Protein 1
Amino acid sequence: MSTITREYSRSPAGRIAYVEGRYLPHGQACVHIEDRGLQFADSVYEVCAIQAGRLLDERGHLDRLERSLLEIKIPMPMERASLRAVMRETVRRNRIVHGLLYMQVTRGAYRRDHAIPQSAHRPTLILTARQLDFAVLERRRSQGVRVVSMPDQRWARCDIKSTALLPNVLAKSQAREQGAYEAWFVDHQGFVTEGSSTNAWIVTRDGILLTRPLSPDILPGVTRAGVLRAAREAGIRVEERAFTLEEAYAAREAFFTAATAWVMPVVEIDGRPVANAHPGEITEELASRYRAFAEAPVD
Ligand code: PLP
């Protein structure tokens, strides 16, 4: 048995993945070795939070998936309604109450050639779901986390949710080695772009909530959009403008957002405490508003 197979055979019993039209035990789900997702990162992905068995912001994630696919000219692997049915079925078969649903769409498996094959119209679709420990997330949220900054060395189309995540993987690992939870990328002019897997926010000394405006420099976070809406509803002064690392050091509050983290307070940046090193008031207000939205009954 290969190391990989041994690793996956340890995945919790009963975990089911959807791949190439079939629901399979997680340890047996595979793609072809010539899949362009594997060989070229010729693929995009989505991650949806699952709360009480329900997919959060499902429409936002599907809209972004369609957009990412369109930008790199991969066809949707199936109609949206069918995809929604597969998403639900994957959540159901894995009995997820609180967790994450991952979807990867690759251009498919073809004889290796950098150029996109003329016949590339059979994308590979992969769905996996996993349980998240809500108590761990809540504990982390109540204390806040540390971030460290590093140069943004990613490509120029960070608005596409590509699986080419090597710079993000290296940044997150470097952050963890330094005892931090997340890395914040900084562009060559000294402005924070976003986190390695999250969008970055600060509250200035005069109470203005800042996050970088949408552009090819950042991923249009679905959680970011929800939190912007919540902030406006709460009457918080919001500006979508880039902020420098210096402004982040001097901020009254800082946090990041993602489907995997919701609203996560940042209490230290590059070893410097943010304000009093405790989650800030506006951050907590937004975290509880986002939680209320996530836990609201569906009509
Ligand atoms: N920025 C990056 C680079 C990400 O990878 C992610 C999520 O994976 C986000 C931001 C947050 O996006 P969302 O709120 O849609 O999860």
Note: The radius of gyration is 20 Å.
Protein 2
Amino acid sequence: MSIFARIIEGSLPAEKVFEDEHCIVINDIHPQAPVHVLVIPKKAMTNLNDATLADQTLLGHLMLVVPKVAAQLGMADGYRVIINNGAAAGQTVFHLHLHVLGGRRYSEQHLGR
Ligand code: AMP
């Protein structure tokens, strides 16, 4: 069972900033920005490679939770949304999650800065 599955079931504590029927949003334990949260579906899937047409609504839902939480956390003016999809892309927890980073200016146009 992944770390995130344990957080979802409640056996591992986390700082939850939002929860609904389909997902939780928690503060990242090693923040890479002043605000760094993770949007995590309650349904366990390794990453996007695992998703099927049946997950279409869920994936859309996660994307719609992002601006809602961003506004709640005071970063409606801009933030980054990142998915590290697969080990080669830096994924370390193999339960799909969206990183939402903000609270500072990203002046560079390049990804990864
Ligand atoms: P990724 O490398 O894309 O798989 O991202 C995994 C993220 O989960 C990293 O940014 C970690 O800092 C974060 N993380 C790992 N364990 C925990 C935890 N127990 N609570 C909150 N965030 C965590």
Note: The radius of gyration is 14 Å.
